[in-house]
Amino acid sequence: MAPPDAPADIEADFVIVGAGSAGCLLADRLSADGRFRVVLVEAGRRWRDPLLSIPLGVGAVWKAARYNWSYRSQPEAALGGRRLFLPRGRLVGGSSMINAMNHVRGNAADFDAWAALGLPGWAAAEVLPLFRRLEDYAGPDPDALRGRGGPLAITEASHADPVVEAAFSAFAAAGHTALADYNGARQEGFGRAQFNLSGGRRLGADRAFLAPALRRPNVRLLTGIRAEQMEIAPDGRVTGVVCRRGGRRHVVKAGREVVLAAGAFGSPALLLRSGLGPAADLARLGIPLRAHLPAVGANLWDHPRVAVEFRRRRPSQLSGAMRLDRLAVALARAALTGRGPASEPLAAAHLFARSRPGLPAPNLQFLLRLFNPALGPRLPFVPPAVSDAFGLVACLVHPASRGRVRLVSADPADPPAIETGILGARQDVEDLTEGFRMAQAFGSHPAFAAHHDGPLSPSSQLVDQGEIEAFLRASADTIFHPAGTCAMGPDGAGGHGQGAVDGTLRVRGVRGLRVVDASVMPLPVRGNIQAAVFMVAEKAAGLILDAARVQG
């Protein structure tokens, strides 16, 4: 195999742009039988930092510039002009290397809604085998709906903190159902969180999918090389990817297909720079139009969140581990053995619930956090600068608000302009307000209250509707699940269709180009989106290989 960073113009059957969650899986699947040459193009590096594999390390890596595109939104109209930090992984493994590792499939209603748009093959019953094929689930499976023996290890949280059982008592007292597995037949209810962990260490896309693929001679990884636009022939066929490393220009040629897996911000930006997008926007930037695709960059959705935190009566195990004399030991133990407080993820449990009656499925997700993430390392015998706390993070997982991604110039070095649009829809404000109130009520339950000395901040005690709304607009942000900006849409009469891509993820208006990442999701998924991204990539691999077999 050629060196992973060899700078040369090369050719392959399939060129994948972005070595993130989807790209790593695709590289594995498309290269598995040895018939096809696969090149994976990644702007970031392949890092070996132990903090990337230690669950507690997420606090250090998710904002680190060397691993991150570090996007910022445009001033958000519904948030008083605030600009939101929007982390996206810029390294091999992508955001699967810097996220909180939660594994949530989503609700069956989500995928049935995709199919109802006119997208056959995407209904819940049709994508279930894809989820199962990927999984190696170690927990209880009362509904016989989980996978065993797949490449993606899934481990249930094992926190021994008494706050977990106290939270479960509060949830049950409010009428919510205890679940053995919220990724099973029923999502609505509560249970211990599930994570992509193996042996107490993060199982990102690099380790789960790309590492096996790179042992094959037909796979090549190019790192530190940035894709700028598609190379499109006069007949409309995408023949390669124009890339740049330093001052040198490279063209990576694709004999069969180019696959964009650059994420909800990167993939639409690449399409737009290639002349695939809204005609008027491209004309303003002087970009020659190849296909008028109004859906490119539109329909951005994300999950807004707000936290209600409570001052812990007794410090958490993680709080004690943050003393510098103990932290090094905890990190070393986690890195070497996968055990100890540093090997436990921050979230301990999830509750899925409805903010109001009449909804077809839950629209709120509550994450139980046992530790105050604002607590940093400290010297021995020096009191913490902030109080230890546990909290409930209320997330609106079926929002109505939409944003967009657009270019500010034709220069690939300029980041795209991102408007998340969160809380732009009045119903979202009301639903997240109800989530905030529910979190307050859970905290007041006697079982929960026995473990805290009241809210961490006065804002958690707000009761007036107007004051709560003002607090949301001043403090809510997203939980970093951007999607929808190259959305799938059904075919229409005369060869036309809605959406940036069709139901097989082919980009409209050209040939030989697909998008495979969270950007193709037309409607929200109820929960953390990484599992759904893996599912989309698994389905895409089958579609791509089927097409290759037909072509011969």
From TrEMBL:
What is a single Pfam family found in this protein's UniProt entry?
GMC_oxred_C
Q: Which InterPro entries match?
A: FAD/NAD-bd_sf, GMC_OxRdtase, GMC_OxRdtase_N, GMC_OxRtase_C
Obligatory cofactor(s): FAD
Q: Which residues form the Glucose-methanol-choline oxidoreductase N-terminal domain?
A: 263-277
Q: Sorted alphabetically, which SUPFAM superfamilies does this protein's record hold?
A: FAD-linked reductases, C-terminal domain, FAD/NAD(P)-binding domain
UniProt keyword list: FAD, Flavoprotein
Q: Which PROSITE patterns match?
A: GMC_OXRED_2
List the GO molecular function terms: flavin adenine dinucleotide binding; oxidoreductase activity, acting on CH-OH group of donors
The record's similarity note reads: Belongs to the GMC oxidoreductase family.
The entry's protein name is 4-pyridoxate dehydrogenase
Organism equals: Stappia indica
Species lineage: Bacteria, Pseudomonadati, Pseudomonadota, Alphaproteobacteria, Hyphomicrobiales
